Amino acid sequence: LGKSRAEVARDLDINESTLGRWVAKATGTEGTGSGSARRAPDANSDDPAEMAKEIARLKQENAFLKKAAAFFAKEQP
C-alpha cells in the first residue's frame, strides 16, 4: 500500500504504538523493544486482575478488527 505506520494508525483511528505492537506480534519481533519486560496477561489465570487485563486486551483487539474491516470494506470497488 505504501503507507507509513503512522498513516495506517491514523486511518484506523488507533494509537501508532498499538499498531506497532500488533505488527511486532504478527511478525515475530514482539518483545525485542523497550518495555518488552512487561508480562502479558495470562489468559488462563483465575486471578481477577489478570482476567481484567485479558478482557481489556481483547476489547482493544476487537475494536481494531472492526475498524480494519470497515477500512478494507471501504477500499473494495
Describe this protein's structure.
The structure is a single chain. With 77 residues, the protein is mainly alpha-helical. The chain has one domain (5-75). The protein is 62% helix and 0% strand. The protein has helices at 5-12, 16-27, 48-75. Helix 1 (5-12) crosses helix 2. The two termini are 16 Å apart.
Q: Give the uncertain stretches in residue-range form.
A: none
Radius of gyration: 15 Å
Kindly name the structural category.
mainly alpha
Largest sheet: none
The tally of domains stands at 1
Termini separation (Å)? 16 Å
**Helical content (DSSP H or I, runs of 4+):** 55-70%
SSE pattern = HHH
Q: Quick gist of this model?
A:
The chain has one domain. Helix 1 crosses helix 2 (16-27). It has 77 residues and is mainly alpha-helical.
